[in-house]
Write a structure and sequence with these properties.
Strands 1-3 form a two-stranded antiparallel ribbon. The protein has helices at residues 2-29, 45-65, 69-75, 81-102, 116-138, 142-145, 148-155, 177-187, 194-222, 224-232; strands at 109-112, 164-167, 191-193, 247-252. It contains ten helices and four strands, in the order H-H-H-H-E-H-H-H-E-H-E-H-H-E. The chain has one domain (2-252). The mean pLDDT is 94. It has 258 residues and is mainly alpha-helical.
Length: 258
């Protein structure tokens, strides 16, 4: 029974996350969701700034702190190892839902593109950012990243092991293509308000801070393989003509640290 619950819980967490991620895309684009980043009654500027900054900080604290090895070591004394990653995903779901719900619009215009061709180009860039982000998760191990592989191993009563450290496709160009795609997703818009810019800037700053801790953890776990890779491949922006050769090692890369 416990194995069935573990599997169902992991699948549920993944399905909710998939819906939340799709809502995030619509939230940023102000498209096909009940409340976008610019929707709602605008409060005073100071009130909106205070609320929105707290919401971004809450996301950053949850998303980064729960991914650290020290927290995981403590947390898995309470939560079984098999659902630790799924619980992390569920916590992210909750924090993002709260952010969407309580976000306060700040409607002052930062830029507005009127030229139809440029608008189309920016929306195409937005779509490319989405595609890069999603594709990047499958270039490591999508199902391990979101907890499904862990609960499946538990359901089958198999001993879990982390996926191998691999470098392929986008990861041969930059170390963090998932984040590169998210940056594009946040900033590529023909209609940028101050509220949208605050959301994009807050998420960007969070990534720039969190990735330092992530890479430190990866270097400790993967050792010289990752240190060498880090020294040879840029973080977010590819260098023209530079493509790292593919790598598959026996070193294991823990979930949430790639």
């Amino acid at each position: 029974m416990n194995r069935i619950f573990t599997l169902l819980y992991g699948v549920f967490a993944y399905c909710v996350f998939f819906g939340v991620f799709l809502y995030l895309v619509g939230f940023v684009a102000n498209f096909l969701v009940p409340k976008g980043v610019d929707a709602g009654q605008a409060p005073g500027l100071v009130t909106a700034l205070a609320i929105d900054v707290v919401l971004i900080a809450l996301f950053g604290l949850q998303h980064s702190a729960m991914a650290r090895p020290g927290f995981k070591q403590w947390w898995t004394r309470i939560v079984p190892h098999a659902i630790e990653r799924s619980t992390y995903v569920m916590a992210t779901n909750v924090v993002l839902i709260v952010l969407f719900w309580l976000w306060q619009p700040i409607p002052q215009v930062v830029w507005h593109v009127e030229t139809p061709e440029l608008r189309i180009a920016l929306w195409a860039l937005f779509a490319a950012g989405l595609a890069i982000s999603l594709a990047s998760t499958f270039m490591v191990d999508h199902f391990d990243l979101f907890g499904l592989r862990q609960v499946w191993f538990a359901f089958r009563a198999r001993t879990y092991s982390h996926p191998e450290f691999v470098v392929r496709w986008f990861y041969r160009l930059v170390r963090h293509p998932l984040y590169t795609g998210m940056f594009i997703l946040f900033w590529a818009t023909p209609d940028m308000t101050l509220g949208h810019a605050l959301f994009s800037a807050g998420m960007t700053v969070y990534v720039l801070i969190a990735v330092r801790f992530e890479e430190r953890d990866l270097a400790q776990v993967l050792g010289s393989d990752y240190v060498r890779y880090k020294g040879e491949v840029p973080m977010f922006l590819p260098k023209p003509g530079q493509v790292h050769p593919p790598i598959v090692t026996t070193h294991k890369a823990p979930s949430g640290m790639r």
